[in-house]
Specification:
InterPro entries: Thioredoxin-like_fold, Thioredoxin-like_sf. The chain is globular, with a radius of gyration of 38 Å. It has two domains: about 60 residues; about 190 residues, 3-Layer(aba) Sandwich (Glutaredoxin). About 55% of the residues lie in helices and about 10% in strands. Helix 3 runs parallel beside helix 5, helix 3 packs across helix 7 and helix 5 runs antiparallel to helix 6.
């Protein structure tokens, strides 16, 4: 009996083999598609997890660098300001005389008016030994210097001058108001503040310290802390319950009169001397 298959049988076998081959190829394709789909899904899940982790991390408060130590100037008065006695040197006082505290911001236009109106009177009384003047540079108007933090920079520079060149602080304070910038401006640059210091005789190394931000780095935290302290002291608040500049304290009591009226201001100082 012949083992050869007939032509029709051979055709059927070929068809079955072709079908089997096609099924195997189809299964292989489906397996590859399944693997690719699972892999893509895995990648997508991993990306989603990474995005969630990133969002959680991004939502956390930024970790700020460790702040510099709080540098307290050696010339600071117990009340926190810069005291001036007869000779006008920062850190000195007139023994037994009442204290006149002046809280000021170098961006504050009313502080400029106060300086223009009363500097001669305060100098006269201080040089006579009748008062100790304590100047408190504060930083409440940074928001009005177009993002340059002028109030903080200028206050820190003033304290830096008081610490490094105490005999020039009084003149520097006066000169800063003579060159006072307008509110809602960028204020003065560090170089311009340094030039003001130079103009009143501040030594070159101190001038360079202002221009190079040494003053800001050293005393910015201190003037900020003094501002917070003053702002929290209800005895310094206005009738509206806020702390503003200029704020004047005579003999420990907030002056509520009109400091533009010399008679009222002098009378309050005289009363402090007597009592």
């Amino acid at each position: 009996m012949s083992s050869k298959k007939s032509a029709p049988a051979q055709s059927r076998d070929a068809a079955r083999n072709l079908a089997a081959t096609m099924r195997a190829e189809q299964a292989a394709r489906e397996k590859r598609v399944k693997i690719i789909t699972i892999s893509a899904f895995g990648v997508a899940v991993a990306a989603l997890v990474a995005a969630i982790i990133w969002a959680v991390i991004a939502s956390r408060p930024a970790e700020l660098p460790e702040p510099a130590p709080l540098a307290t100037p050696s010339v600071a008065a117990e009340s926190g300001g810069i005291s001036l006695g007869k000779d006008g040197v920062a850190g000195t006082a007139n023994e037994g005389a009442p204290v006149v505290d002046v809280y000021l911001d170098y961006m504050c236009p009313w502080c400029g008016v106060f300086e223009e109106t009363n500097s001669a009177l305060l100098t006269e009384l201080r040089e006579a030994g009748d008062i100790t003047l304590v100047v408190h540079p504060v930083t409440i108007l940074d928001r009005l210097s177009s993002g340059t933090a002028f109030s903080t920079r200028s206050a820190a520079a003033a304290v830096y001058v008081a610490e490094k060149a105490p005999e020039h602080f009084d003149a520097f304070n006066t000169a800063m108001f003579a060159k006072q910038p307008e509110e809602n401006s960028k204020g003065l640059t560090d170089r311009e503040i340094a030039d003001i210091a130079k103009s009143v005789g501040v030594p070159a190394d101190v001038v360079d310290g202002i221009a190079n931000l040494d003053s800001y780095k050293q005393f910015a935290r201190w003037v900020g802390s003094q501002t917070e302290k003053a702002s929290a002291d209800t005895k310094l608040h206005t009738q509206d319950g806020i702390f503003s500049t200029p704020t004047i304290v005579v003999g420990g009591t907030k002056f509520e009169g009109d400091w533009r009226n010399e008679q009222q201001f002098r009378a309050a100082i005289d009363a402090a001397k007597q009592g």
